[in-house]
Write a structure and sequence with these properties.
7-stranded mixed sheet; about 120 residues; mainly beta
Length: about 120
């Protein structure tokens, strides 16, 4: 499986963006798919994850209520809808996939496959 992230951009605080993570090479319907982000000088941090098609979703406290992860199995794509964006959401966003157990769902090391990042910049 190869992942391609897209949809980043420059927006103002309060705006919305939708990121896409498209899989190629194989279906990832049985994989957990997660979104992570990394701001300059900071560690990569967990944002959201969805456990295989129809499975549960998990969110970092910092994005809960503003971001929504969803999956379109027919398109082999996972989305991250980001609403009410804040300047502190500025980062490079990465999607990742793997066979991940719930207790490690927020660990970057638990994901075997990574896409390239997409830059999200939120101006105040």
């Amino acid at each position: 499986v190869q992942l391609q992230a897209s949809g980043g951009g420059l927006v103002q605080a309060g705006d919305s963006l939708r990121l896409s993570c498209a899989a190629s090479g194989s279906t990832f319907s049985t994989y957990t798919v997660g979104w992570f982000r990394q701001a300059p000088g900071k560690e990569r941090e967990f944002v959201a994850a969805n456990r295989w098609s129809g499975g549960s979703s998990y969110y970092a406290d910092s994005v809960k209520g503003r971001f929504t992860i969803s999956r379109d199995s027919a398109k082999n794509t996972v989305y991250l809808q980001m609403n009410s964006l804040k300047p502190e959401d500025t980062a490079v966003y990465y999607c990742a996939a793997g066979q991940v157990i719930v207790s490690t769902i927020g660990w970057p090391s638990a994901y075997r496959i990574w896409g390239q990042g997409t830059q999200v910049t939120v101006s105040s």
